[in-house]
Amino acid sequence: MQVIAYFIISLLASVAGAICGIGGGVIIKPTLDLFHLDSVATVSFLSGCTVLAMSCYSVTKSLRSGESKIDLKVGTPLAIGAAIGGVAGKQMFSVISAQFQETAGAVQAACLFLITLATMLYTLNKARIRTHRIFKAWVCLAIGLVLGIMSSFLGIGGGPINLVVFYFFFSMDTKTAAQNSLYVILFSQITSLISTLVTASVPEFSWLSLILMVAGGIGGGMLGRVFNRRMDNKAVDKLFLVLMVIIMLISLYNAWQYTAA
Questions:
Q1: Listed residue (30, 168, 177, 35) closest to 112, CA to CA
Q2: Across all residues in the chain, what is the average pLDDT?
Q3: Which of 70, 58, 74, 40 lies closest to 169 in space, CA to CA?
Q4: For 21-39, how does the pLDDT look when each residue is reduced to its tens digit (9 = 90+)?
Q5: Closest Cα to residue 220, out of 79, 90, 94, 47?
Q6: CA–CA separation, 37 vs 221, rounded Å?
Q7: How far, in whole angstroms, is CA 244 from its chain's centroid?
Q8: Between 20 and 30 A from 65 (CA), which of 30, 35, 210, 250?
Q9: How far apart are CA 154 and CA 168, in angstroms?
Q10: Residue 232: CB partners within 8 Å, gap ≥ 6?
């Protein structure tokens, strides 16, 4: 029953993640934490692998189909920065997890709540906020570095903060930002996984759970692409806001659970 829950959660989260460009990990991680199906480290690892599978499928499919809206001049330095930041964020989490164990889950949940709240407030007011068009590679690299650290530390792959970055710094519309976000997430997750393997810090996990979650991630990527093509920017924005509210409520509850434990 537990492995079925893993598959369903990863599938539904990946559908939403592919549509909105948030990767799915921002939904998978707090949801699995909510039910305490595995340790914090194992949930972060499984979530990262799922997001990697989904983003790999989505990005590859969009590039091969000629429907890609990815801006390689901006997205590539961002992705490189996110890859470097992903390694740093992974190390930060390992240190905190080793020293504080269950408290690490509370820290992750609290940080995720604050980031999601800030993202939702920006999204609600983005029509009134002046945006920018940044092209300098070193600035993109620095922005990507910060994104990578946050996403890897929180175990969410990319998350809603990516979209705000593409809105504010690069003046992208919702659907363009979603594709570029998945491109950055792909790089950061590949690097994060390699770092985990090289440092031999892979937590204990069930192979069946991993296989079903990866399958759910790829399946969600397929369905998400179909829905994304049929939805306009307003519909994607509405779905994004609904997800933000759900994520914040789950994060608050998780933070309370870990603190009370």
A1: 30
A2: 86
A3: 74
A4: 777 778 888 888 888 778 8
A5: 47
A6: 24
A7: 13
A8: 210
A9: 22
A10: none
Q: Are 2 and 209 in contact (CB under 8 A)?
A: yes
Predicted structure pTM score: 0.83
Strand, coil or helix: what is 159?
Answer: coil
Q: Which of 166, 150, 163, 168 is nearest to 114 (CA)?
A: 150
Give the single-character DSSP code of 190: H
Residue 37's identity, in one-letter code, is: L
The answer to whether 191 and 84 are in contact (CB under 8 A) is: yes
User: Which tokens go with 52?
Assistant: 């990697």
Burial class (CB in 10 A: 0-12, 13-18, 19+), 235: middle
Q: pLDDT tens digit string along 94-108?
A: 777 777 666 777 888
What integer is the mean pLDDT of 115-142?
Answer: 90
